[in-house]
């Protein structure tokens, strides 16, 4: 029997060509379609995607990669990791007895309830005391911009196989004539993302209970030749406890499914490194996947293949980048694959030509860009469908090189044309970059003139802010009306002048609204921005915007990351006019508008980045471009400038050994943006979506004057033990803007009192935990009224004391 060559991927994006999934899921939430329609439309999307993958050349397609909301939530649901409060809420308090898994609506509503929270009695939007169940937490999926749900496990969690959608999907795909491979998030990665709220059982105890349910599931999938188990935790530094957990869990799992199906162990986002010898090579697995884009070091430093080639029956080579949009250099990939195959020698091992990770992180297809994107740039790019074609071509060219030379040559020509293109290189930008010292040398080059204490003194004198000053994070509701106006402008229905006038009107109303609310430091509302990163991408050179390059961020929410293809500069001011206008409306009030920029690390992380230079170099270019904007804002009389860095934690490399250099360049890039402003200009920054424990020193190094930081969901756990450590001003978010629930005055006040155990009165600001763009105007109004009242009551009580 000769070994087989197979083209496949680890997963396909779910949203659809025109974000059909977003539309149908949101349609269900708003009552426009019923549950049967939701299921039939989403089933159809799945089938269309299967067909598309096969048509474009895949031999084997993944099933189980689709999800109505999130794959970790699906896994939790399938294994009965469903906290009872969600079932009770969905069944009007009847609890388990009223809950029938055959009742598809109850099932779907429980599922979405876990993701989004559930309203029970009273109106949760207007009545803070109304009963409801909060959504489960979300967490970043490794170092990506995708957020998964954090399932909750407890001592009483009773694992059971309650969901049958994976088995059904698999059967359906087979019936349609496809070679399908069920994909499951592996038990260790699943438990890694779970929040264990129990007191008695450890995660290892949970693993023991969970593993038999995995075995049951895989038994139900009997007939499938392969099962894919995703364990990207193998890209992390794992301590001995984790190593043992992994070995024990997999030994049991693999013996349970032995002879039933073959298991492909899949790691991505990095190399196995020492986890290969400690874990992988000790397990009787049938196949192993390597991320050859982000984890190539496995082939440089270890004899990975030698260790496993006599025991495995397939090796999966992730040569096509699942996280970035550049065309694969097929000739280089073929060389890599040939080398690896050589080291396999005569062993009978199937070769899978695979994506490095799931294609979840790249857009659907280039169709929406044809005739819109600059044609030179277009030839450098592949989205999901095009990446599938690359895999198919790679496989075919590997088998029959002579038949495909023309296509491989064409690809070489396109790929190299980027590296030599005039579009990519800017001599002035590169010249300017040369003047920036490398981060490993003199760090004072990046600092401001004086330290935080002196700046604080000067700023206190100038701003004369009250105690517990109030502010918001920047955006105000991006209402349907705002989005419609923007569409009308983009489609040419209204002129630029009309659009600009509309945005100015909204900004003016926003300023008046904030004055009425009594906020102390105001914002312009960010109405002119589709997104805090895409907006800057539209103004910088070296960036290219896509028309339909949507990528799922969480649930039904998507982002359209811009593409960084060349050296970055800022040809003209981007934000000054509107911010200056907003500030002009405050004449005579003694109040200030905060200028609002997105920081270099966040712009970098939420864009598709160049792969022909280091991230540090690209971030430095962005920082220099932003520095110009900061100085122009200052010249225009803007005294407070916020530089948002919500992605600073997400940018932290997965392995400790890579983190030290990141800490340095990330802090330096941030400082570069604002280093030349005067002492009296107050620099704010904002961070969210993370646990900040492991980057506290980075936050301190960034040396902002004021930090607003998400805190409301993680209930202060970020700041425990740092009393006296962080000395600049700080506004830990007092409530969660991602929930429609209106926060009560008393609960926010209680939070401040807790915060006062860690921070001084002089340090504390009063603000929400993130921007208001996803909320309604009414929700924002009610929440901010309460928030301002908190500040006033605290101010009064401390005056008395
Ligand atoms: N880049 C980035 N990453 C991030 C965040 C972020 O803010 N930006 N925040 C976190 C994630 N949070 C997020 C919060 C909200 C949304 C979100 O609301 N996304 C919107 C899209 C926002 C947008 O670009 N809106 C466009 C409209 C785009 C659109 O839908 N256009 C329609 C046409 C609409 C019409 O005709 O009415 C189309 O193209 O089909 C605009 O404002 O102009 C959505 O999915 O619905 C995304 C992420 C972490 N990562
Ligand atoms: C994801 S962080 C958001 C910060 C931005 N200034 C906003 O208020 O929307
Ligand atoms: Zn935020």
Automatic annotation (TrEMBL):
Single GO term (MF): zinc ion binding
Required cofactor names: Zn(2+)
Entries under Pfam families matching the protein: Meth_synt_1 (PF08267), Meth_synt_2 (PF01717)
Annotated residues for binding of Zn(2+): 686, 688, 697, 701, 710, 770
Domain of life according to the entry: Eukaryota
GO biological process, one term: methylation
CC cofactor note: Binds 2 Zn(2+) ions per subunit.
Top enzyme category: transferase
Binding annotation for L-methionine: 473-475, 526, 644
Binding residues for 5-methyltetrahydropteroyltri-L-glutamate: 22, 145, 557-558, 606
Protein name: 5-methyltetrahydropteroyltriglutamate--homocysteine S-methyltransferase
CDD domains to which the protein is assigned, alphabetical: CIMS_C_terminal_like (cd03311), CIMS_N_terminal_like (cd03312)
Tagged with keyword Membrane: no
